[in-house]
Design brief:
Length: 231
């Protein structure tokens, strides 16, 4: 058996997140997040997407490009458990794996035939860093992929925790209108590391070319500044 197998990057994901901080911890948690999938030149054949128009969702197989390591650990600390409890790596979706491969389900918004880039897939709900390499795309099949009765292991107690977001109107007005709903959804998911809970601390998150500064206290996230992103 081969120890290694050849893989090819077929596309790149473009999103509003230039850094890992603030990216939703799973796909679909913020269904207003807009991203685009742009194919590498050798895969820009429209025939490769023939029939995709009949599907609403897509599986994206991708690489944790900022989490590539030469070694691996059999246990990791999932954020959902506060970052203090270790679980087996294969019982989690941690990026720190023997092979740094991610899997996300996204909603197809539309497919654009770009004059220079070829077919570009516009998607909603992705949890990927801008520039993420994509290895494959597969249609989501409701009859085979949906299992409402499935057990969720140690995540079963998670009830969709959300923060209340206090975004002053004068600061929200600085954010481009097309980013406002998605940004508020991201903030409501609590971008902070699970082990940080300092109500005095001002956090910063890069999103859509802007730096969003905020505090969190007693379940309320308050935006205190919106600044141009640092080059």
């Amino acid at each position: 058996m081969q120890d290694t197998l050849p893989m090819h990057v077929i596309a790149t994901m473009h999103s509003a997140f230039p850094a890992k901080f603030g990216i939703p911890r799973q796909s679909g948690l913020v269904d207003t997040l807009r991203s685009t999938i742009v194919f590498q030149p050798e895969y820009r054949n429209p025939d490769a997407l023939r029939g995709l128009e009949g599907f609403s969702h897509l599986w994206v197989v991708w690489v944790f490009s900022q989490a590539v390591r030469n070694t691996w650990s059999p246990t990791v600390r999932p954020p959902r458990l506060g970052g203090n409890t270790r679980m087996g790596v294969f019982a989690t979706r941690s990026p720190f794996r023997p092979n740094p491969i991610g899997l996300s389900c996204v909603k197809i918004d539309r497919v654009e035939q770009h004059p220079e880039l070829g077919p570009v897939i516009h998607v909603l709900g992705a949890d990927l860093l801008d520039g993420t390499p994509i290895l494959d795309l597969k249609p989501y099949l409701p009859y085979a992929d949906a299992h409402p009765e499935a057990a969720g292991g140690f995540t079963d107690g998670y009830q969709g925790y959300r923060l209340e977001v206090n975004f002053p109107p004068e600061l929200l007005a600085v954010v481009p209108w097309e980013n406002r709903e998605a940004l508020q959804g991201v903030l409501a998911q609590d971008p902070r590391p699970s082990y940080q809970a300092d109500p005095q601390r001002i956090y910063g998150m890069a999103f859509g070319g802007q730096n969003i500064r905020f505090t969190v206290a007693e379940g309320v996230l308050t935006v205190v500044a919106v600044e141009p992103a640092t080059p």
